[in-house]
Design the sequence.
């Protein structure tokens, strides 16, 4: 009895659903490798409901070989593995299908992607992630537009072309990233939202001018917009407009800049991240523009409880709070501040706008934009200006910094 117990295959005795769950965390190369475990596992991989094809090439593997030869070898290897895996797969349904290809070579064509995506769509895929960081321009397959089984969709490295509205009646989460070539318009976003009546999470990263962006949805609860295109702006404010009408929104994150912010009230919003981000010189004209922007945005989030802001936000606040008579937000209990090496001249104005903070998190960036004289200036020392009422409310301070010990409110924080 003891001998049979020693040789007992306890792993194979696990319920099939549990085995599938464990394998769902592995890429398909590792999942297929389980065939060597035992005869019982020989074909088990062909029934997994989660298929993750992750592929990355390393230039060092080829030395100085001709790039055409490298492309041919890697393309054959990728296509052979993916196509054979899909041919042998005989599961009941695909819960999650992921293609993640990172390479400086042109390894896949739109034809390849269409074939693989049609396979996923025909098997009622629920979660689909397409992340292609390879040479060339790619278009998202048209078959995705009518995939009514989708509950989560993430596209990175693709242009979108949708005629009419998509049939995403069950879609809960949508992420669109790295859309190039001017193919993402405000009208397209409108049609996507119209075709996604149950959408709750929407993440959008812009890398090209989107003109006027109109986000209108009653189901949306979390919205994240990152405007990479305007990072290099210097003297002139942007011209595009961001409109948001999402009455049930709970979390809002905006990174980058838009020319105008037209928001309806967010009665259920509790978490807001406002990161004005500009690379280069910040002119007086831009400060003036950002002051107006700050007034627009803050007036629409009176009920927010958690706020995260950038250092530029603080600088603008210091220059514009009195001019624009910004009203305090007394419901804010949590404040996160991301800073670099600038002097925080608007810090005190920040505490006037958020007078009832109970937890303050200061995240000191590792990016050094100018020499830091530790002995001359302590950028985070402002305890002599803190109001007594503010100190009575504040319970917790967290400071993340690898440069120096910070003295704040008479306390020491070692990070």
Sequence:
């Amino acid at each position: 009895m003891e001998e049979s117990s020693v040789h007992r295959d306890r792993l194979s005795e696990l319920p099939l659903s549990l085995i599938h769950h464990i394998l769902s965390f592995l890429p398909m190369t590792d999942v297929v490798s389980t065939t060597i475990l035992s005869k019982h596992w020989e074909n088990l991989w062909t029934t997994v409901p989660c298929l993750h094809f992750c592929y990355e090439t390393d230039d060092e593997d080829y030395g100085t070989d001709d790039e055409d030869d490298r492309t041919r070898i890697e393309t054959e290897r990728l296509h052979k593995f993916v196509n054979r895996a899909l041919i042998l797969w005989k599961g009941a349904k695909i819960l999650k299908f992921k293609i993640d290809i990172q390479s400086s070579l042109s390894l896949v064509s739109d034809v390849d992607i269409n074939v693989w995506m049609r396979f996923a769509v025909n098997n009622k895929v629920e979660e689909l992630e397409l992340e292609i960081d390879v040479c060339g321009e790619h278009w998202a397959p048209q078959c995705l537009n009518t995939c009514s089984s989708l509950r989560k969709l993430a596209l990175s490295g693709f242009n979108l072309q949708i005629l009419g509205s998509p049939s995403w009646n069950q879609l809960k989460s949508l992420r669109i990233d790295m859309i190039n070539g001017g193919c993402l318009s405000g009208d397209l976003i409108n049609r996507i939202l119209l075709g996604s009546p149950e959408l709750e999470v929407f993440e959008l990263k812009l890398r090209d001018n989107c003109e006027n962006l109109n986000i209108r949805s009653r189901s949306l609860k979390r919205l994240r917009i990152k405007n990479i295109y305007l990072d290099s702006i210097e003297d002139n404010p942007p011209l595009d407009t961001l409109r948001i009408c999402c009455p049930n929104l709970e979390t809002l994150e905006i990174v980058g800049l838009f020319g105008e912010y037209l928001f309806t009230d967010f009665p259920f919003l509790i978490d807001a991240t406002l990161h004005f981000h500009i690379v280069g010189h910040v002119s007086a004209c831009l400060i003036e523009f950002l002051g107006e922007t700050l007034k627009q945005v803050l007036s629409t989030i009176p009920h927010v409880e958690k706020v995260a802001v950038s250092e530029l936000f603080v600088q603008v606040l210091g220059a514009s709070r009195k001019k624009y008579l910004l009203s305090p937000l007394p419901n804010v209990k949590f404040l996160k501040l991301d800073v670099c090496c600038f002097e925080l001249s608007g810090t005190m104005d920040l505490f006037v706008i958020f007078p009832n903070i109970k937890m303050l998190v200061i995240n000191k960036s590792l990016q050094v934009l100018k020499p830091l004289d530790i002995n001359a200036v302590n950028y985070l020392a402002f305890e002599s200006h803190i109001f007594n009422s503010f100190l009575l409310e504040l319970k917790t301070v967290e400071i993340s910094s690898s440069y120096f010990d910070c003295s704040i409110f008479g306390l020491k924080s070692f990070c």
